[in-house]
Amino acid sequence: MKLWLYIIRRILLIIPTLIGLTIIVFILIHVRGNNLIIAEYLNPHLTGAARDYAIQQLYQRFHLNDPLFIQYFYWLYQVINGDLGLTRTPIYSGPVNTALALFYPNTIMLALVSSILIWIIGIPIGVWSAVKRDSVFDQSTRVATFTLYAMPAYMVYLLVLIIFAVYLKWFPISGAVDPLLLQGVSWYVNGISYPTHIIFIDALLHGDINIALNSIWHFILPSLGIALGGVAGIIRLLRSSMLEVLDQDYIRMARSKGISESEVINIHARRNALIPAVTSFVYGVAGLLGGVVVAEVIFNIPGVGYWTVQALLNNDAGGILGSTLIFGIILVTASLILDIIYAALDPRVRY
Amino acid sequence: MSEILTINNLKVWFHTRRGTFKALNGVNLNLRKGEVLGLAGESGSGKSTLGLSIMALLPSNAIIVRGSKIILKNRDYLKYFELFPEEKIDRKFKIKKNQKIMKHIRDFLAKIRGKEVSMVFQEPMTALNPLLQIGYQITEALLAHSSINLAKRILSRINLTEDDVREILKIVKSSKNVEKDLNEFSKLKKLDGIEDQVLYILNRKDLSTIRKERMIYSLKEKMKNPLTMSYLKKIAENKSIGIYRFLNRIPILKRYLKGVLIKEGYRKAIELLAMLNIPHAEKVVYMYPHELSGGMRQRVSIAIALANNPDIIILDEPTSALDVIVQYQILQLISELKYKLNISFIFISHDLSVLAEVCDRIAIMYGGRIVEIGPIDKIFYESLHPYTKGLLRAIPKISKDIKTIESIPGTVPDMRNPPNGCMFHPRCPYVMDVCRNKVPKSIEYSKDHFVECFLYGE
Amino acid sequence: MSKNIGLIGRRNYLLKQNPRIEELKISFKIFFTNPTAVAGFVITLLYFIDIILVQFFPSFIGISDPNRYIYNFNNPVPLPPSSSHWCGTTAGGIDLCDAIIKSIRIDLIYSLFIVIVGAIIGLLLGLVSGYLGGIFDEILMRITDIFFSIPYLVLAIAILFVLGVSLENIAFSLIIVWWPLYARYARAQTLSIKQMTFIESAKASGTRDLMIMFKHIVPNVLPPIFVQISLDLGTVVGVFATLAFIGFSPTANIPELGYLTSLGLNYISIAPWSVIIPGLVITVFALAVNLMGDGLRDVIDPKRRSV
């Protein structure tokens, strides 16, 4: 019961963060001047007085003559009503809303699969290298994590690409799904799959196992790359917190009860060691999402990150707005989820 | 009185990068059934190391030197291991091999730990796992050693018939020695474990007699599903549980198998906590350590130590971190337990006045040796060793004339290079030539009063 | 007479064991007995020597134009490492060894700039907000919260959108992204030092706030910040190169490692060395800086000092 109260309180607490997020996005978009905002709406064929008149109209429509902080409220109202403006990039032109529906599923898939991989790989390795301290396993883990930690993100992805796609040819080099498979599929229109927009789930819903498997096959390599980039930090953190926990009095107490060593580690030590890992994984998620951007560029996956880069290179305000907003929301949601996991792990924070 | 634990010539050293730290240098000690033995000394005298050696909970850099004997209930449990002899512990010492030996000892003694010897640690604030419920932490100790008892308790409630209940109530009402009669009854009817549960209800002070009777009636439980029943029977008969071990890994089945035992563990935990005068024990088991006060936590630690009816409980400074009133309550609880349960205690403390409250005998430790051991009156009124005398003088007394507290000059020796001869000679006011070269032998000065000092004997 | 002895005694004391010098000696001893830290230090030093050589004595190591790649369009397809090209060549026939030696300079100088400026801004703000507390502290924490609510790479891209794409602006955007981290860290350190008794005793003896801050708190906050800088340097080099790699290097012909890596991207299946080698150069640097930082952390760790 108390956990529920904590969750509700924590959800209320993200409202100020979200407001801050919108302020920052608003500033980023408006600081470059008004011309950029209306650029997408202006008919490029107009000239002279007609053009001036159209500009006037747009200024009125977006309240650009008002003071900045009043503009913000108009803008916020517009955003809350779901109107995020227009975007014009080589990979997509149209309303930002549609662009998000088009791009965010891939990003979510990547982020989810890779964070699951990080925990699956990271927890056992981190715990074991602390338990078997100074063993060969521990030493080699430390060398590997140190090297991975030092590598810039793109380097990890390129290495994964070279090893698994170029040399071993196990996985495709790029893309989110084989476009040949999607030809003439009724639920896939203009690059957007329906109803959930996530190709994998939609394919399963419509019973196209082939397409679902193909999309998974395309996602393995980038997810693995992102996971490898992020796992080093988790392993290092878990190892050190596990070593600290193993020194605690309650571990000695647990041993004094005569329970087996595996129970001491699995029940008493591991959960305690996970707590600092969970709390600092909030920062890890930020890094991971950055990794998603780079991975989408390298593996040519049409996701929000790829779109962001295109938006920057093409001076497109709508794209920057949409992607910053959606990445911020993903990060805030992730930290909310991590906080809830933390509260579920540790009874002390629920008060 | 019979001896339950004998320690002979116990030497425990620690291998460190800056030399070998000689924590224990030939400790001789015996513990009798049902007594409280106090262990006093300055910090660094090796008292905690002694406690940890008996539990085999030494850190991995510890070395138990060959020739050490720890005899628990007539079994010398160090004799199975190839310990390093003293002369081999030098620069070329094989630390890895020793670590393996220590690990073997630790694993070998897991079945003794908690069952025959258990320990209560100094810091109640950190000794309990902050993430686990109090009930679970007690249950864990029970599951490790007495899952048979837990299974029997469940089965006894299931096998209980209406007639049995009536008979129990008759015993409760008419018998003069309820405990004994209930024991006999449960043996006769093969209802092992029911007597504890009945006694717990009877001993509760917050219920009326009618409520108690109603509770005894409601002890009877329905049959569980066949899988659970066969699992419980196997455990109760101490048979191998082969396939169930695998089934216990499956999350849903686990609830029906191990989960039943854990639930029973919580019931037993409530009884244990109630015995230690913890109010609302049935709520406390579902709490987490941070919700309890220091004194309560220390009681929980004691409950964990008591869970499997051990022969020996080692109390490592159990009251040092508590305030005076709670300290008094804990001390009272320990003396109560001593009379009730016939358990032997080793009470480690640096505070002689605390030991005076509860102990039968006191051993004084200095430099990893027991320099004086004897009954409490002898130690306090006829102390022999200069160190003991110094310790006693250092206890602050409330009197008008003396404003200063005396202390013993000098400091505890550096146990990496301990002094030759008697460890205490650099600080001893009565030092003689012989003290600097030879280690004094233990002398029985009067009955049961031993001292290691050249001032006495020939 | 007695006064004289006192003076001599004091002078001897100063000559023999100035506590600061003693402390420094211990620090050096701890650092230089750690082989991995020394290795990291030496490698880092090599990179910095490379910068100095390229900057001031380019001809000394046989580099004709330190600000530009030298194309060889006769042989635009990457060649594997050989005796004439030790590291091979990348797209456009650029010799990798030559290119890498030039590129290190830009990456390292910009990263150092980012880390140091970010640290100074963060340190000042964190120090003041930690020391003063109250509303100022609250506002700063909310601001950093907002900064942390957007993934830093995305935020950097968004700021680049405002500033316009150039190497300098990449550096500025990363400073804006990085300072909140230092602010938080400095604030936490300040808070923990503020709790200590010597601050209270300084306050009790009437020392002014500004004095306490610079005389007592700053010297204690600086060492951990310094360690953090050395640990962050590796990450920042990576992020800087990543941004350049994605394609935010404005003019194609500035020697920069991320851009150099991206040149080889089109040839990844036939010439993997053209992406692996420049990437490894950054990895080795980040590794070295991390090892050095770990060594430095040991130096300021009181647990390690007392041994």
User: How does the overall form of chain A come out from the CA principal axes?
Assistant: globular
Domain count of chain A = 2
Q: What does the largest sheet of chain A look like?
A: 2 strands, antiparallel
Global structural class of chain A: mainly alpha
Distance between the termini of chain A: 12 Å
Helix percentage of chain A: over 70%
Q: What integer value in Å does the Rg of chain A equal?
A: 24 Å
Numbering strands along the chain, what is their spatial order in the largest sheet of chain A? Answer: 1-2
Written description of the protein model:
The complex is a heterotrimer of chains A (351), B (458) and C (307). Chain A has helices spanning 2-30, 34-39, 48-61, 68-80, 96-131, 136-150, 153-167, 199-205, 209-246, 249-256, 261-299, 304-313, 317-345; strands at 86-89, 92-95, 188-189, 192-193. By secondary structure, chain A is mainly α. Chain A folds into two domains: 1-39 and 41-84 and 315-351, no CATH class; 100-293, MetI-like fold, CATH 1.10.3720. Chain A has a two-stranded antiparallel ribbon. The mean pLDDT of chain B is 84. Among the domains of chain B are: 134-281, no CATH class; 364-452, no CATH class. Chain B is α/β, with parallel strands linked by helices and 458 residues long. Helices cover 43% and strands 17% of the residues of chain B. The longest helix of chain B has 18 residues, at 258-275. In chain B, β5 (69-72) and β6 form a beta hairpin. Chain B has an eight-stranded mixed β-sheet, sandwiched between helices. In chain B, strands 1, 2, 4, 5 and 6 form a five-stranded antiparallel β-sheet that branches. Chain C has a single domain, classed as Orthogonal Bundle (MetI-like fold). Chain C has helices at residues 2-16, 19-32, 35-56, 96-132, 134-148, 152-163, 167-194, 197-204, 209-248, 257-263, 273-300, 302-306, and strands spanning 89-90, 94-95. Chain C has a two-stranded antiparallel sheet with strand order 1-2.
